[in-house]
Amino acid sequence: MSRHQFDEMYAAPGQVREHYLQYARWLAEQPDDVMRARREEAEMIFRRVGITFAVYGAKDEDGAGTERLIPFDLIPRVIPAEEWRSMEKGLEQRVTALNRFLHDIYHDQEIVKAGIVPREQIEGNAQFRPEMVGVDLPGGIYSHISGIDIVRAPVPGGQGEAEYYVLEDNLRVPSGVSYMLEDRKMMMRLFPELFAQNRVAPVAHYPDLLLETLRSVCPDHPVDPTVVVLTPGMYNSAYFEHAFLAQQMGVELVEGQDLFVKDDFVYMRTTRGPKRVDVIYRRVDDDFLDPLAFRPDSTLGCAGLLDVYRKGNVTLSNAIGTGVADDKSIYPYVPQMIEFYLGEKPILKNVPTYMGRKPDDLKYILANLKDLVVKEVHGAGGYGMLVGPAATAAEIEEFRQAVLANPEGYIAQPTLSLSSCPTYVERGIAPRHIDLRPFVLSGRKGVQIVPGGLTRVALKEGSLVVNSSQGGGTKDTWVLED
Fold first, then answer.
1. Per the structure, how many domains does the chain have?
2. What is the pLDDT of residue 383?
3. Which letter does DSSP use for residue 341 in this model?
4. Alpha carbon 340 to chain centroid, angstroms
5. Which of 286, 317, 336 lies closest to 126 in space, CA to CA?
6. Which InterPro entries match (predicted)?
7. Which of 15, 24, 296, 365 could form a disulfide with 412 if both were Cys (CB 3.0 to 4.6 A apart)?
C-alpha cells in the first residue's frame, strides 16, 4: 500500500477540496483566541455532563481507576452526499450478509458445505455458542446494532486518490454512538452559524431509530413491548453511554440484579411490582449474561435468561453468539459471504489480510513483520497488536515468537496510511489520522443508518491508533445534503 497521505480537506497545500470550501472560508476568519476559548468551553461542558471513558488498567496516584475525558476536536470531518450514498449502500450490503452468515452458521451451515469457510474456523471459534444452534430469532437478525470501522487510504499507484476500506466489523456490543450524538450537540452549541451556512444531515434521531429497531424485533406477542438497556454497572468503561441511550430512548437502565426469570419469561423489579421485559439491549458480553449457562461466577446477568431466550420469549440485542462474525479470523471471508448470500460484488473493500493459519501467508507475515500490522484474532480496542513500522526490534521479535507459537491466533495487514484531517492541537491546526465508525441498525423494517458516524482521531503526531482506550479523540462527522 502506498505510504503517501490523503488529506480529507486539502487536495494539495492551500487547495481546499470542494465540499470543505464553505467551512474553510469560515475557519480562516476565526481568531485563534476564539477557537481556543471554544475548545476550553467544550472540555468544561463535557466534564460537567460526565462524558468520560474509564480506562482499564490505568490508575491515578491513589491507586483508583482513572476516568478520562475523550478529547473532542473542533474541526469536523466532512463527507459529500454522493460519497456517503455509496458508503451507505456498502454498509447495508455488508451487515445484511453478516446477519445471513450468522443465521446460516447456527442453522444449515450452507457456507461451510460450499467449502467457503472452513468448519473449524466457526466451531473452533471462542465466540461460537453451540447453545444457539437451531434457535430461530425474530426476522433472522443477530446483529441489530453494528459498528463498522472504515478507513480511507491512498490507492496503490493512484494519482492522489484514496479508497474506503472496512478495517473491522463490530457486532457484539459496539460502543461510541453517544460520542457521535454529543459531538454534534456540542458543535451546534459552539458554532450555530455553521449549521445555518452548511446543509449538514441530522443525527439526533438515532435514539428514535434505535428504539424503533429494538421494538421491531420483540417476540411476537406484545402490543406495546417493554425494552430495557442492560448494563454491567457504573464501573464499566462505557457506562456513560448505557445511561445516555436509556435516557434518550425513554426506557429503563437495568443491571442483572434488577431482572429475574419466572414461568419462562423475564421480569424486571419495579416499585409497582414485577414488569415483563420483551427486549433487552444488552451491553454485557455473552459470558456474563446467564450464570446458569455460561460463567457461574457472573453477577452481571440474570439466571435462566438463556432458556427464556431459546424459547423465543425475550429478544437480546445483539444476539448471543454474534461474536463469531466480528472475529478477525472471519473478517477475510466477508467479501465471499456477500457474493454467496446476496449474489453481489462487495461495494466496500476489505483491507488485504494475511492469515497465520495459511502456511504461505504465515511465511509472508514472519518475513515482513516490520512492515505489517499484526493483530490477535480475538483482540479488541487496539490491544494485542503490533504496528511493525512503529515497533522496536525487541517488540517485533516478541511478536514473532507469539505468532510462531500460535499461528492461527493472528492475522496481518499492510500498514495503511490512514487519511488525515486538520485537527486543532496545542500548537494550532495540524493533520491527524482518522477513521470512521458508522452505526448500522437492522430491524424487521430493514437496515437504517444515520448519516455519518463517529470519527475517531489519533491525537499523537504520526500515530495510526485512534482507539479512545489508547488516547484517541473524536470529531463531529458532517454528511452534506445535496
1. 3
2. 63
3. I
4. 25
5. 286
6. ATP-dep_Glu-Cys_Ligase-2, CP_ATPgrasp_2, UCP005522
7. 365
Residues across the chain:
482
3-class secondary structure, 11: strand
The H or E element that residue 248 is part of is: helix 239-249
Cβ atoms of 437 and 426 within 8 Å: the answer is no
Residues 81 and 228 in one domain: no
Strand pairing category for 439-443 and 354-355 = unpaired
pLDDT of residue 377: 83
Q: How confident is the model at residue 65 (pLDDT cuts 50, 70, 90)?
A: very low
CA torsion sign for 320, 303, 444, 130 is positive
The domain containing residue 262 runs over which residues?
A: 220-313
CA–CA distance, 450 with 210 (Å, rounded to integer): 10
DSSP character for 481? P
CA-CA distances (angstroms) from residue 443 to 213, 361, 446? Answer: 5, 38, 5
Cβ burial of 152 (10 Å; 0-12, 13-18, 19+) is buried
Say yes or no: 321 and 305 in one domain.
Answer: no
Domain stops at, among 414, 431, 460? 414
Average pLDDT over residues 185-207: 96
The DSSP element (H or E) to which 476 belongs, if any, is strand 473-479
DSSP string, 272-330: TS-EEE-EEEE-S-GGGT-TTTS-TT--SS-TTHHHHHHTTSSEEESPTTGGGGGSTTT
Q: Where are the beta strands (DSSP E) in 155-224?
A: 162-170
- Closest CA relative to residue 145, chosen from 52, 211, 232: 211
Residue 351 corresponds to which cell in the numbers above? 483491507
One domain for residues 346 and 445: yes
- Identify the CA nearest to 363 among candidates 404, 416, 413: 404
* 229 and 282 fall within a common domain: yes
Q: What is the pLDDT of residues 320-338, one digit of tens each?
A: 999 999 888 899 999 999 9
> CA-CA distances (angstroms) from residue 247 to 23, 234, 242, 475?
33, 15, 9, 23
Determine, yes or no, domain membership for 1: no
Whole-model pTM? 0.92
Domain assignment of residue 194, yes or no: yes
Claim to verify: residue 35 and residue 82 sit in the same structural domain: yes
| Set of cell numbers at residue 304 | 435462566
CATH number at residue 359: 3.30.1490.270
| Domain presence at residue 344 | yes
Per-residue confidence at 70, pLDDT binned at 50, 70, 90?
Answer: confident
User: Measured between alpha carbons, how far is 106 from 313 in angstroms, rounded to an integer?
Assistant: 19
List helix spans (H) across 265-384.
305-310, 334-337, 359-367
Residues 214 and 290 in one domain: no
Note if the bond before 236 is cis, omega within 30 degrees.
no
Relative to beta strand 279-282, strand 72-79 is unpaired
Identify whether residues 88 and 128 lie together within a single domain. yes
> Residue 254 maps to which CATH number?
3.40.50.11290
CA distance 425 to 282: 36
